[in-house]
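Intended use. Records like the one below are meant for learning the mapping from a protein sequence to its folded structure. Do not use them to infer anything beyond what is encoded.
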Amino acid sequence: MIIDCHAHVFQHWAGACGHPSGEIHRQYMQKVQTRTSARIFRARDGADFSGALLFDGIDNSWAGLKEQNFRVGKYGRLDFTIDGEDYHSQYMPVGMQEIVAPPELMLANMEIAGVDHTILQTGWGYGAMNDYNAFAQNQYPDKFTALLNVDEARAFTDENMAEFDRAHKKLGLKGVYFALDAFARYGFDVSFDDPRYDPFWNKINDAGLPVFFEISAVPNYDVKSYIANLVKLHGLMDRYANIRWILVMGPPVGFFGSTGQWNFPDEVLAAYKHDSLLIEVMFPITWGGKWDYPYPQAQTLIHGMRDLFGSSKLIWGSDAPNVERFCTYKQCLDYVRIYCDFLSPTEKDAILGENLREALSIAKSA
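Structure written out for the chain above:
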């Protein structure tokens, strides 16, 4: 059984997508683009730029976002204008004429690639996803397991605790997505391991829900910030034994694998080896614009992860539909399924589905 641990469905991005306003949604989208691995180019001549155009380069919070007429375009592009010049971020695949991804788009991808089940993750750039993720899961319960989102930097408030209860108990969402980049909205004024969060983490622990945890290197977006956040996560993993944690996006290659081999500091390796942690295997979404399919560099890094952690800790994910800006959905699976020939058939089965199926108690497909 093949399970994709990381994919998305979403409403048309031109709208609020569940947020209180379209403007709040726009700011979340713009913040994501400040450090995207997607190609950003000038419309007039195709010259390449970076997402640094979208913020002041000093303040990493929302306060540092520039007014650049950021907007949702067509053909997978997010657009903005500087001094009369239009720029595009090719964040979604070119074939996405309108930036919208209904459940049936993911189902079609799964059918072509031979994927049996998918975990629908969230993220504020996609929208406030609880209702739409629940819609997709309820429409296709045999195909989707959906996560809930909370306002991470304010998860401990009464309002957000109530939304957690609604998403879990009423909507039936089966896991929690928690990403540190969301703390930028409030100027990184609190840490996720602050004592104020204890009731929130206790609630998840009591419910026995998995937490898909995405560690951005906030607030400074450097290796020191990443390690500090990972050490804090290690502390949570020690405290909350009833939570299964999933490291979204896996280890950052830029920090620990830029030489082509992993080089983890001791405190990083200790956190990654924690018994409660599963690690996403996901390379094309960030490196598919620099490496060519079938990604031999990624294969080498997967080999290293297998040797360090064992195949029982690794789970494959795509980040579809975004990943199709760099490769097809099937290729995103096949670079592991076909080309990682150092993995035994049993190891491939584990990484491509069985580890996650057992952790989340997903029923086997017929």
